[in-house]
Structure formats: C-alpha cells, structure tokens
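Fill-in record for DNA-(apurinic or apyrimidinic site) lyase.
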Amino acid sequence: MPEGDTVYATARKLTEAMAGVPLVVGELRHPRLSTVDLSGRTLLKAVSVGKHLFLRFDGELSFHCHLGMDGSWRFYAGRPRIGHRVRAVLATPQRFALGTSLVEMVLVSTGDEHKLVDHLGPDLLDPDWSPAKEAEAVRRLTAKPERELGQTLLDQMVMAGVGNVYKSELCFLLGVSPWSSVSDVDAEKAVRLARKLLLFNALRPIRNTTGSRRRDLWVYGQNRHGCARCGGPVLVGHQDDRITYYCPRCQPGPTTS
C-alpha cells in the first residue's frame, strides 16, 4: 500500500531513471489528458509531498498524480507490454517508465503546484523539516484532543504521509488502542516517531517498523501470526472505512469506535 515513504522512493527512482534526457514518448492515458504529448520535454526532477507526486518538466510544467490504493511506477530497459491499468507512459532512448493505476492526474504550472497540496499538514519527509514544522504538526494533531488517534493519524491535513500501515504501527509503538483519544498520547512523541519511521523506510526495499530481520511489522497484517512483541493475538477492526490491526495486550484502551 503506497504511503509517504513509497511515494518519496518513487520520486527518487523517477529522477534517477528519467531525468535529464528528452522524452521520446510522453503519453497520459486519461480522458482529460488524452491530447497531451510530453515527448520532447525533459524531466528535471520528481518530488513527493506526502502521498502526492509531482514530475517537473522543462518549460515550468508539472504532472501531478497520486498512487491511490495500489498505484505504482515501474521501469524497463525495453518497451514493455502496456496493460489496461497503465495511465502514464514515459520513455527516453534508454528506458521506459509506466505509471499504473494512477489517480488525481493533472497538469499544472510548476509555480502552481502548491495549490494542489496547500491543504495538507506538514510533510513528514520534507527535506526542509524544521522545529517550526514539527510544532505545526503537533498543533494540528492536538487540535481535536477528543478525536480517535487512528482516525487523526490518517488525516493528511494533520500531517502528510501516514497511511493505514503506519497508522496501525504507530498506535502499537505508542502503546495505545487506535480508538484511544489523541489526548491519551504524547503528541510530540507521536509526530517524531511518525517522521522517524518514514525516514527509516524511505529508501528501504521492504518496509520495516520492528528493526528486526525476523518480523518486519508489529501488528499490521499480523493477525495470522500474532503480535511480534508478546506473541498474543492480533485483532482486526474497522475505523471509519479502514481496517485496523492491534494487539489488545500491548495496546490497552477502547476497541470499538
């Protein structure tokens, strides 16, 4: 499932693979963008903002997309088979890049990128992260102290980059139920831990929150294996419309919303 770390890594791979060479193919497969031809343009850099991805081309043009629930970018040395879920086809003389299951596709002036992401909270993988941005994330996290923690962590207007995997893992590491109130945790610790986890995983091939080679995740998707800490059962619940994993032994607190 693409989260902030996945999008950050994708931006870096796009830059490394495609930047600096004029495109010989530049197709965007969306009804709104079907007449757009990016061939001849040069990718300058790809950047992530939370779960949003911008591909910046020469001429002050940016292509914005979101990976949604299962989107991805993949790279090929030769021309690949282009399936029905492919939404972007980019190619230089050296390689192809296919964007699959992309959503929220739009072309904007590079100077207007901010209009698409101004509503977001601080980006946890912002290279210019600062104490002021941390303080803003804490302020947004605690703005509604009675709100459920799991629900709040998923809110991209609080801080950008946390998805369902990190939501479950953060609640575990904070030692509380996902249905606990925000007021039940140290908000500064929560923000710092969220950034630490995303930074640790930003360039790793396999997401890991335990620091162990034996088990990659504490509770997310571990309902068949048990808690990676205590060995007890990992339960599955729903918070809004998202699945939540938790260990009732290690995470005391309410278990229903």
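KEY FINDING: The mean pLDDT is 96.
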